[in-house]
Design a protein that fits this description.
This is Amidohydrolase family protein. Keywords: Hydrolase, Pyrimidine biosynthesis, Zinc. The protein has 440 residues and is an alpha/beta fold. The chain contains 14 helices and 18 strands. It folds into 2 domains: 91 residues, Roll (Urease, subunit C, domain 1); 307 residues, Alpha-Beta Barrel (TIM Barrel). Helix 2 runs parallel beside helix 3 and helix 4 packs across helix 7. The radius of gyration is 21 Å and the shape is globular. The two termini are 36 Å apart.
């Protein structure tokens, strides 16, 4: 697979000292140092000191900051090919590096759709030439993401696709979904699906309920999500395929996921940082930057998601990074496009849950590091000897105000504009290479 982050034996060693070392995979939280050499973690713990640092190593005093694996975002739109006016791989990965994200799983609903090996190759080459972090392409599950004809999963996987999805387009036909899961199973491939019944969602633009009635907006019932999810889970059980629900936001969906996991099926689920930290009331006076798919749900629904994350039922947190320009967002709420950016703010927004005491720090980080790595079968996501040196340093307590004009994404549609967050990423390292650093 094409990558600019192949191990380099002549790279300058890095020694991070006085750090709070957190490995979510083993739930360890210790004080010590970290040695990076030739693109991998060579040593870590209290025994790593300035006295035993290699010659010509760069010594970095972390001053008690957290050092942990780099974040892995399983859902982000990178713009290329075809939507460079919204985002490019260069700008998306710059935002990712500033937010502590070292691996992006790029969604396939580009123009052209990533349903041909040549397009997979294009994304990999652009990432190699212009990306600051790792970019892994998802390929389309069906041709054109149209839900009718299964894509050539085997050839796409050989070209470098690491998972298969139709993005925000749910596969409506149950027989097509069954065949896709069966076909993917033969390649041990992961199917990532967005569960939403398009007919039941209809023209809905926010959560169906009292708030949508008060605002005079068409609503999307929670059942639009759960009906498709329940179908998918039954088909995954029938076929034995690997299934991941990309974003769930309804308590009914949590019940379905729980039952499937108890039954031993190979299913996982994610939710977005927006659905964990915001609710329908935040839409306020028709704030279109909070028009999302699925819609932000009620506060009790959000609390249920947070509890499921804390208990380990929700496996993954994604940014659901979806840049939209002024022409599609500065419109009446009903006419505005869905989506928000999130690569640069995912970690800091997630730390809200830690500071409130709702989710332990190791559990939050696990949902952004080792859990997605395990699902995608990646070597990254752990802070252990021999692991790839995809590492970040951040201060979980340092406050900052989100200024959209300072964000690195090409678009500014952040739902956290003007919000006071805590958690400044001070250094991002990918394959032993520093790709983001805050000046001391």
């Amino acid at each position: 697979m094409l990558s600019r982050f192949a191990p380099k034996t002549d790279a300058q060693p890095l020694v991070l000292l006085n750090a709070r070392l957190i490995d979510p995979a083993t739930e360890t939280d210790i004080r010590g140092g970290l040695l990076i050499r030739a693109g991998v973690i060579a040593d870590l713990g209290p025994g790593v000191t300035v006295d035993n640092a290699p010659n010509r190593a760069r010594i970095i005093d972390c001053r008690g900051d957290v050092v942990c694996p780099g974040l892995i975002d399983m859902q982000a739109f990178v713009g290329e090919p075809g939507a460079e006016h919204r985002e490019t791989i260069a700008t998306a990965t710059a935002a990712a590096a500033a937010g502590g994200v070292t691996t992006i799983l790029a969604t396939p609903a580009t123009s052209p759709v990533v349903d041909d090996p040549a397009v997979v190759d294009f994304v990999l080459r652009r990432a190699r030439d212009t990306g600051k972090v790792r970019v892994l392409p998802m390929a389309a599950l069906t041709k054109g993401c149209e839900g009718r004809e299964i894509a050539e999963l085997g050839l796409l996987g050989q070209a470098g696709a690491v998972a298969f999805s139709d993005g925000a387009h749910a596969v409506a036909n149950a027989l097509v979904m069954r065949r896709a899961l069966s076909y993917a199973r033969d390649f041990d491939a992961l199917v990532v699906h967005f569960p939403q019944d398009r007919d039941l969602a209809g023209e809905g633009v926010m959560n169906e309920g009292e708030t949508s009635l008060r605002l005079g907006l068409a609503g999307v019932p929670a059942e639009a999500e759960t009906i498709v999810l329940d179908r998918d889970l039954r088909l995954a059980a029938l076929t034995g395929g690997r299934y991941h629900a990309s974003i769930i936001a309804a308590p009914l969906s949590l019940e379905a996921i729980s039952e499937a996991k108890v039954s031993g099926h190979d299913v996982t689920c994610g939710t977005s940082i927006n659905h964990l930290t915001l609710n329908e009331n935040d839409i306020g006076d028709y704030r279109t930057f909070l028009k999302l798919r699925p819609p932000l749900r009620s506060e009790p629904d959000r609390r249920a998601l947070v509890h499921a994350l804390a208990e380990g039922l929700v496996d993954v947190i994604v940014s659901d990074h979806d840049p939209q320009d002024v022409e599609t967002k500065r419109l009446p709420f009903g006419a505005a496009e869905f989506g928000a950016i999130g690569l640069e703010t995912m970690l800091a927004a997630g730390l809200r849950l830690v500071h409130s005491g709702d989710v332990p720090l190791t559990r939050l980080l696990a949902a952004m590091t080792c859990n997605p790595a395990k699902i995608l079968k990646l070597e990254q996501g752990r802070l252990q000897k021999g692991a790839p040196a995809d590492v970040i340093r951040f201060d979980p307590d340092e406050p900052f105000v989100v200024d959209p004009l300072k964000l690195r994404s090409r678009c500014r549609n952040t739902p956290f504009a003007g919000a006071l967050l805590q958690g400044v990423v001070k250094m991002t390292i990918v394959g032993g290479e520093i790709v983001w650093e805050v000046a001391a």
